[in-house]
Protein backbone atom coordinates (compact mmCIF):
# COMPACT_ATOMS: atom_id res chain seq x y z
CA UNK A 1 0.00 0.00 0.00
CA UNK A 2 1.00 3.60 -0.46
CA UNK A 3 1.32 5.43 2.83
CA UNK A 4 -0.73 8.60 3.11
CA UNK A 5 2.25 10.77 4.08
CA UNK A 6 0.35 14.10 4.12
CA UNK A 7 -2.16 12.64 6.60
CA UNK A 8 0.62 11.12 8.70
CA UNK A 9 2.32 14.54 8.87
CA UNK A 10 -0.94 16.14 10.01
CA UNK A 11 -1.38 13.50 12.71
CA UNK A 12 2.19 14.04 13.92
CA UNK A 13 1.64 17.79 14.06
CA UNK A 14 -1.59 17.36 15.99
CA UNK A 15 -0.32 14.86 18.57
CA UNK A 16 2.88 16.85 19.09
CA UNK A 17 1.14 20.21 19.55
CA UNK A 18 -1.75 18.97 21.66
CA UNK A 19 -0.57 16.01 23.69
CA UNK A 20 -3.68 16.06 25.89
CA UNK A 21 -5.80 14.96 22.91
CA UNK A 22 -3.55 11.95 22.15
CA UNK A 23 -3.93 8.67 23.97
CA UNK A 24 -2.86 5.56 22.13
CA UNK A 25 -4.52 3.40 24.80
CA UNK A 26 -7.86 4.21 23.19
CA UNK A 27 -9.15 4.52 19.67
CA UNK A 28 -11.52 7.25 20.84
CA UNK A 29 -12.03 8.02 24.51
CA UNK A 30 -14.14 10.48 26.51
CA UNK A 31 -12.27 11.64 29.61
CA UNK A 32 -13.85 12.41 32.97
CA UNK A 33 -13.65 16.12 32.07
CA UNK A 34 -15.57 15.59 28.81
CA UNK A 35 -12.48 15.85 26.60
CA UNK A 36 -12.05 13.46 23.65
CA UNK A 37 -8.72 11.65 23.37
CA UNK A 38 -7.79 9.87 20.15
CA UNK A 39 -5.16 7.34 19.19
CA UNK A 40 -3.45 7.38 15.78
CA UNK A 41 -6.39 5.57 14.17
CA UNK A 42 -8.87 8.03 15.65
CA UNK A 43 -6.84 11.01 14.50
CA UNK A 44 -6.52 9.49 11.02
CA UNK A 45 -10.30 9.35 10.63
CA UNK A 46 -10.87 12.77 12.20
CA UNK A 47 -8.24 14.56 10.09
CA UNK A 48 -9.03 12.71 6.85
CA UNK A 49 -12.58 14.05 6.99
CA UNK A 50 -15.64 12.58 5.34
CA UNK A 51 -16.65 10.45 8.34
CA UNK A 52 -18.62 11.08 11.52
CA UNK A 53 -18.32 9.09 14.70
CA UNK A 54 -21.37 7.13 15.79
CA UNK A 55 -22.00 5.32 19.04
CA UNK A 56 -20.31 5.69 22.38
CA UNK A 57 -16.73 6.98 22.29
CA UNK A 58 -15.54 4.32 24.71
CA UNK A 59 -16.77 1.29 22.79
CA UNK A 60 -14.39 -1.65 22.72
CA UNK A 61 -11.77 -1.84 19.99
CA UNK A 62 -13.20 -3.28 16.82
CA UNK A 63 -16.68 -2.00 17.73
CA UNK A 64 -16.31 1.75 17.19
CA UNK A 65 -18.10 2.77 14.04
CA UNK A 66 -18.09 5.72 11.69
CA UNK A 67 -20.57 6.83 9.07
CA UNK A 68 -19.60 8.31 5.72
CA UNK A 69 -21.01 11.83 5.30
CA UNK A 70 -22.26 11.45 1.73
CA UNK A 71 -23.01 7.75 1.24
CA UNK A 72 -24.30 7.09 4.77
CA UNK A 73 -22.34 3.84 4.80
CA UNK A 74 -21.43 2.61 8.31
CA UNK A 75 -18.07 0.94 8.82
CA UNK A 76 -15.79 -0.08 11.64
CA UNK A 77 -13.37 2.71 12.50
CA UNK A 78 -10.26 0.54 12.51
CA UNK A 79 -10.92 -0.54 8.90
CA UNK A 80 -11.45 3.03 7.75
CA UNK A 81 -8.31 4.18 9.59
CA UNK A 82 -6.26 1.47 7.87
CA UNK A 83 -7.50 2.66 4.48
CA UNK A 84 -7.08 6.41 5.00
CA UNK A 85 -3.56 5.91 6.42
CA UNK A 86 -2.60 3.67 3.50
CA UNK A 87 -1.06 1.04 5.77
CA UNK A 88 -0.97 -2.70 5.27
CA UNK A 89 -2.76 -5.01 7.74
CA UNK A 90 0.40 -5.69 9.79
CA UNK A 91 1.15 -1.98 10.12
CA UNK A 92 -2.48 -1.30 11.05
CA UNK A 93 -2.42 -4.01 13.71
CA UNK A 94 0.72 -2.53 15.22
CA UNK A 95 -0.47 1.10 15.05
CA UNK A 96 -3.96 0.58 16.35
CA UNK A 97 -3.64 -2.41 18.65
CA UNK A 98 -0.03 -2.93 19.72
CA UNK A 99 1.76 0.39 19.95
CA UNK A 100 1.86 2.66 22.98
CA UNK A 101 2.01 6.47 22.62
CA UNK A 102 5.76 6.59 22.06
CA UNK A 103 5.98 3.60 19.70
CA UNK A 104 3.14 4.84 17.49
CA UNK A 105 4.58 8.36 17.33
CA UNK A 106 8.06 6.98 16.56
CA UNK A 107 6.65 4.75 13.80
CA UNK A 108 4.92 7.74 12.21
CA UNK A 109 8.08 9.87 12.47
CA UNK A 110 10.23 7.11 10.94
CA UNK A 111 7.75 6.45 8.12
CA UNK A 112 7.53 10.14 7.20
CA UNK A 113 11.32 10.60 7.46
CA UNK A 114 11.96 7.54 5.27
CA UNK A 115 9.58 8.89 2.65
CA UNK A 116 11.20 12.32 2.75
CA UNK A 117 14.71 10.81 2.39
CA UNK A 118 13.53 8.75 -0.58
CA UNK A 119 12.04 11.83 -2.27
CA UNK A 120 15.18 13.87 -1.54
CA UNK A 121 17.39 11.12 -2.99
CA UNK A 122 15.25 10.98 -6.12
CA UNK A 123 15.48 14.73 -6.56
CA UNK A 124 19.21 14.99 -5.94
CA UNK A 125 20.34 11.81 -7.69
CA UNK A 126 20.49 13.42 -11.15
CA UNK A 127 22.54 16.28 -9.69
CA UNK A 128 25.97 14.75 -9.99
CA UNK A 129 29.17 16.53 -10.83
CA UNK A 130 31.66 15.60 -13.51
CA UNK A 131 35.43 15.64 -12.94
CA UNK A 132 35.55 19.41 -13.53
CA UNK A 133 32.86 20.11 -10.93
CA UNK A 134 30.12 20.82 -13.44
CA UNK A 135 26.63 19.42 -13.10
CA UNK A 136 25.88 16.53 -15.40
Strand content: 5-15%
Note poorly predicted spans: none
| Number of H- or I-type helical stretches | 5
Order of helices and strands: HEEHEEEHHH
Helix content: 40-55%
Distance between the termini: 34 Å
- In spatial order, strands of the major sheet run 3-4-5
Total E-strand runs: 5
By secondary-structure content and strand pairing, the structural class works out as alpha+beta
- Describe the main β-sheet briefly: 3 strands, antiparallel
Radius of gyration: 18 Å
Residue-averaged pLDDT, rounded? 87
What does this protein look like?
The two termini are about 35 Å apart. The model has no long low-confidence stretch (mean pLDDT about 85). The strands form 2 sheets. This protein has a 3-stranded antiparallel β-sheet. The protein is built from 5 helices and 5 strands. It has about 140 residues and is an alpha+beta fold. It is elongated, with a radius of gyration of 18 Å. It has helices at about 5-15, 40-50, 75-85, 90-100, 100-125, and strands spanning about 30, 35-40, 50-55, 65-70, 75.
Summarize the structure.
By secondary structure, the chain is of the alpha+beta class. Helices cover 48% and strands 12% of the residues. The chain has helices at residues 5-17, 40-48, 77-85, 89-98, 101-124; strands spanning 28-30, 36-38, 51-54, 65-68, 74-76.
